[in-house]
# Entry
Amino acid sequence: MIARVASRAWRGRPGRRPFRLAGAVSVLALLALGACERDGDQATTEPPAGERLTLTAVSYDALPGWSADRVAEAVPALIRSCATLGGRAADRPVGPDGIAGTVADWQAPCSRLAALPPDDHATARAFFEEWFTPYAAANGTDRDGLFTGYYEAELRGSRTPHPDFPVPLYRRPADLVSVELADFGDRWKGDRIAGRVVDGRLRPYEDRAAIESGALKDRGLELLWVDDPIGAFFLHIQGSGRITLADGGEVRVGYAGQNGHRYFAIGKALIDRGELTREEVSLQTIRDWLLARPSEAGAVMNLNPSYVFFRELEEEGPVGAQGVVLTPGRSLAVDRRYLPYGAPVWLDAEDPVDGTLRVQRLMVAQDTGGAIRGPVRGDVFWGHGADAELRAGRMKSRGSYYLLLPRGVIPAASD
# Structure
């Protein structure tokens, strides 16, 4: 059985399809392969003509490594996603074009999750085999796709300005306006723009260069101050982070808004200038380049006009675009034009650190990003710390995935 989800044709519409910024952001795709910044107020295009998701029902034996994964580790992530269905009408469609059925289709499996014993991987595996059908995902007939990674950045900072902490992290300005264009017509459904109202008209907000030059200074928008402008730039890319305070303690910050300017990948600029090759570009090599050239770093970072505003997080971790706390190693960012939030996804991709290994694990689609585009495209949230940064920074893995849907659901537009 194959389900074909046809892309909607591009109609030359103003604006671009939006992507919410969530807990954190893809590293490599952001820096070189195209922005993965979770640009909540920035729009992106509809799926390109000819691009489509195809789903083919398979058995669990077809999932590479299925019997070896610590499947129970994905259950808490799925419980969080299931909680978002509470209070929604039973007949409400789940996912784009109702690809994942309705809320009613998810109620039974979701209600049984809490009863699963923790760390019992055999029982968890049996649960998924009983309640979900795996579908091999492809773009038409091509099952191969790109998988990148992101992580929670870490910086040193202060709640008050100090010579050792000169770089402000700004709150969302009150005059930043985000417009849901669907409010003005169904043909703009899903599109969003942002800016400032000037003389009764919506105008672009200040870009990164203007803000770095002091456009928002003395407006009381400073949330925190950090010690490293390059680290702050990467925090903007990641979208969330942990700030270790000089006087003790730690603060988590997360996305609160974006200035509406399209993200530009500075890694691409460095490739075009011959400073780095496409093969060697990574978070680590780009950061090393910036650190080695302090006189040029600011201008290069300002090539990216997108600017992120932050809030202090009360949650226990970064919050994904689905509105739930992300689970390290188990939360996956996907293209929401194709895949539904909250769906279990089996990933099979090259390991970013050891080329002889594979990343084969059950994940949950809980996030998205501007560069996460395509029927077979994903971004793994690796958490925080040195290992997470290493994996996220190096990940540009080829692989594939399988979408798990409640048994009885026939994906939209099935043949």
Q: What stands out?
A: The chain has a mean pLDDT of 87. The radius of gyration is 21 Å. Residues 8 and 174 are 35 Å apart (CA to CA).
